[in-house]
Amino acid sequence: MDIRIKLLLVLVFIHVWLASGQNQDIVYLQALMDNWKNTPPSWVGSDPCDKWDGVTCTDSRVTSITLASINLSGELSGDIGQLSELQMLDLSYNKDLTGSLTSDIGNLKKLKSLILVGCGFNGPLPEALGSLPELSYLALNFNGFTGRIPPSLGKLTKLYWLDIADNKLSGSMPISNGTTPGLDLLVNAKHFHFGRNQLSGEIPPNLFSSKMTLKHVLFEDNQLTGTIPLTLGLVQTLEVLRLDRNVLRGDVPSNINNLTLINQLFLSNNKLNGLLPNLTGMAVLNYLMMQETGLRGEVPVEVFSIPQIETVVLRDNQLNGTLDVGPSYSNHLQLVDMSNNKISAFTQRSGYPADLILTDNPICTNSNTRESYCDHPTESNSTYSTSPNNCIPETCGLYQTSSPNCACSYPYTGTLVFRAPSFSDLGNATIYTSLQSSMMSSFESHKLPVDSVSLGDPTKNADDYLKLTLSIFPADDDRFNRSGITRIAFMLSNQTYKPPHGFGPYFFIADNYDFFSGAAKRKSKSMSIGVIIGVSVGGCILVLLLIIAGIYAYRQKERAERATIKNSPFASWDPDKGSGGRPQLKGARSFTFEELKACTNNFSAAANVGSGGYGMGGLEFKTEIELLSRVHHKNLVSLVGFCFDAGEQMLVYEYIVNGTLKDSLSGRTGIRLDWMRRLKITLGAARGLQYLHELADPPIIHRDVKSTNILLDERLNAKVSDFGLSKPLGEGDQTHVTTQVKGTMEAMDTGKDLYNLREVLDPLLSLSSEQLQGLERFVDVALRCVHETGNRRPKMSEVVKEIENIMEMAGMNPDAESTSTSESYEGKSKGNNHPYLNDFSYSGGLLPADLEAK
Fold first, then answer.
1. Which distant-in-sequence residues (6+ apart) come within 8 Å of 33 by Cβ?
2. What is the pLDDT of residue 842?
3. What are residue 217's DSSP bridge partners?
């Protein structure tokens, strides 16, 4: 054999040997791509280390994949576990990445950061997460994960950041017991972000110890019970503590004063009691929230002299006596809200903070005082937005925005959410300019292609989160490319950007970005099939190596895409009628006209259980079903699907067997509803509305709540229905929803037994005060809900809490599920017998339906 051929074969053999790992990685990346849509156009060719957007390599092996905010859709397949050198995986802000988190993720033994913020993943968290020995950053917040927290997370000894907030996780917090690990072993962790889940049970005392180095403990808005553990006072590194919006009981432990580094303390909306604890050891405390906790006694004057204190909110408690802010209260003090307590006097020395609120206290209600602190506060939300930088804004084209530097471009937008801000004055522009300045400095120091940033619409939601709209404008072009977007998104998803002091922990939820530059149609991804022959020097044995690459995978993917389009529930969508692109739905399917015709026996009148009416164009209909498909709650009627076929527009909802609440109240269903059951139904409806107002994205205002739009299932659970008049907030010109209350308000004698309501009560209800426990309190809530002034009405989360309290006061567990069906509840009448006939004439008597009309 010619020596030149031998030498060539040897060089090829060496090349193949060195590149074997790389070739292996391309196979698994191709497999991932088979499950994804909208991968970057640069993902072509046989070398992922050669300018593939979002892919970083070391020694020809893939070590980092950062594809945040590029509109990826599909599922994360188990092939990800084969990228054995992977150290960083960030797929954040891809809302259409769905499915469960594969247990093969546990094979990534070198993974240091796993960031999946703001995706659509669901199902349980795999135990295999505990098999990542190098993991230091785990952010899975704002998905749909369910089930328990895996105890195996306790094996992640290098974990620094643990954020599993804003999911649907349930059960108790796992603690080690000698044979299984638990969260108490995470002594190197600085961040426990578990808020807005469904966690229950007591906070285990063993969770905390003096060995821990936690800075943030965020357990807000769960279902945690029991007392605040004394061991919490041992974690003296704590800076932010949120235990609010749970069901915690008992006194606030006195040793909480040992947490000398705490600057934000949230204990509101629990069932605590006792006196306000001594907090003078918290020398850097600047934000204290303890509203609606059951506190009693007088407020210690020392709390207002804490050097850095800015905000003290203690409203809706049982605090009494004389309020004294002292002669030398902190010069940082901005807001003291003590409304709705039992304070009878106020000691004025050398003035008091401008924002002192004492409304609904005896000092204001039992006297003719005209002091400003007795006035009801106005809404504090700000209309702040970033001003132009000494220039005149341009008139921009469709979808473009004028930047602070007055250049028209397509910004990268989203919502910046701060979980524990330390200030209450949302109108202070200096706060936002400092945030904007620090963000630009951070982008510039990391050499990101950012021209300017804009902030606006600061608001606080029911969880006291500060929400800001964020727009990031591109430099040197009118739009970002994918590389620029992923780098900016990564900076926000992995907390590289650190906000100024006072803003506290944050997260970012990005909007889809549809304006990438260089978005050419993807070229063929095929890889050549070659036969590479290697031989050893001096040997004559021929080694045949066959490199198999992506033609087969490419063809399979193209075939699958064609099948998906063919079988797509939106393949029949007609863009010529102005209906736009295919709807982006979650959980709803498309029905053909023939399918619904068959299911309803040709729309037979015998199958009719109710009717409604609406009329809209294709675009409005598409928007409606997209909105409804995102709404999922046990107290809301679910959208099963829709029909946009044969010139028809139909919505398909789940069937609710017991019809409307009005039917049951009027006796048409034969179901007898006692006082407890009616409270349970009211609670269910309130929880459904709370979800629409505070958890839906965007929030939704129903605008047509009435007994005919509340349905009852087989166990008499309430389900809110009929969203025909609903309005989403925060989308274009739909931001305005009228808050005017309709109807005429009667006078009501609150000084008499049962508020003098005996004459109008349903005869099926017992008329004894003992058996109608909480009626007066229930009426109070109802009256507050229809107060003429919008800012005097309670939030739905407050209504839910109040109804829960009423039920507990009456000896009923508000979370207990009914074990009986409507067929057995109160002995449902058979046939046409009316349950009220024994009490008065059906034809001439006064029925609850008539009362409702009145």
1. 39, 43, 525, 557
2. 29
3. 192, 241
Domain 575-653 = CATH 3.30.200.20: yes
Return the CATH architecture of domain 661-853. Answer: Orthogonal Bundle (1.10)
Exposed / middle / buried, residue 95 (Cβ in 10 Å: 0-12, 13-18, 19+): buried
Taken in order 681, 686, 689, 690, the sign of the CA dihedral is negative
Burial (CB < 10 A; 0-12, 13-18, 19+), residue 479, is buried
193, 141 in Cβ contact below 8 A? yes
Token reading at 665 = 């109240």
Q: How much is the pLDDT for 725? A: 60
Given a contact cutoff of 8 angstroms between Cβ atoms, the answer to whether 355 and 340 are in contact is no
In SS3 terms, 24-40 reads as: HHHHHHHHHHCCEECCC
CB atoms near residue 501 (< 10 Å)? 10
CA–CA separation, 120 and 586 (whole Å): 10
Average pLDDT over residues 375-381: 70
pLDDT digits (tens, 9 = 90+) for 533-556: 333 444 445 445 445 545 655 655
More confident residue, 347 or 492: 492
Is the separation of the CB atoms in 711 and 719 below 8 Å? Answer: yes
**In sequence order, what are the residues at sequence separation of 6 or more whose Cβ sits closer than 8 angstroms to the Cβ of residue 602?**
none
Residues 6+ apart with CB under 8 A from 168: 144, 145, 146, 197, 198
Q: Rounded CA gap, 553 and 741, in Å?
A: 61
- Name the token pair of 546: 């066959």
Q: Which CATH number fits domain 401-510: 3.30.1300, 1.10.8, 3.30.1360, 3.30.70?
A: 3.30.70
Sequence spans of domains, the chain? 19-350, 401-510, 575-653, 661-853
Calculate what percentage of the chain has a pLDDT beyond 70.
77
DSSP label of 244: -
Q: Are strands 161-163 and 191-193 parallel, antiparallel or unpaired?
A: parallel
Whole-number Cα distances in Å, 394 to 400, 406, 409, 718: 10, 6, 10, 51
Q: Do residues 446 and 496 touch, judged by C-beta distance below 8 A? A: yes
Cβ neighbours for 549, distance < 8 A, ≥ 6 positions apart: 26, 27, 30, 46, 526, 527, 528, 529
Least confident of 174-178, 414-418, 469-473, 596-600: 596-600
Cβ neighbourhood burial of 56 (10 Å; 0-12, 13-18, 19+): middle
Residue 814 vs residue 765, higher pLDDT: 814
Per the residue annotation, which of 355, 704, 839, 850 is the catalytic one? Answer: 704
Residue labelled with tokens 């046409």 = 832
pLDDT tens per residue, range 726-783? 667 654 444 445 555 655 556 866 666 667 777 777 777 755 555 778 888 888 888 8
Range with the largest mean pLDDT of 102-106, 517-521, 569-573, 641-645: 102-106
Burial label, 176 (beta-carbon count in 10 A; 0-12, 13-18, 19+) = middle
Taking phi over 0 as left and psi of -120 to 50 as alpha, with beta for the rest, 771 belongs to alpha
What is the arithmetic mean of pLDDT over 385-408? 91
Pair type for strands 73-75 and 96-100: parallel
Listed in sequence order, the residues at least 6 apart from 142 whose beta carbon sits closer than 8 Å to its beta carbon are: 117, 118, 119, 165, 166, 167, 507, 509
Residue with tokens 């060496």: 14
Phi, psi of 302 (to 5 degrees): -65, -25
Q: Please tell me the distance from the alpha carbon of residue 678 to that of residue 784, in angstroms, as a whole number.
A: 19
Q: Which CATH architecture has domain 19-350?
A: Alpha-Beta Horseshoe (3.80)
Catalytic (active site) residue 704: yes
Strands (E), 628-689: 639-645, 648-653
Query: Which is it for the CA torsion 442, 444, 447, 449, positive or negative?
Result: positive
Mean pLDDT of the chain: 81
Please determine, for residue 831, whether its predicted confidence score (pLDDT) is greater than 60.
no
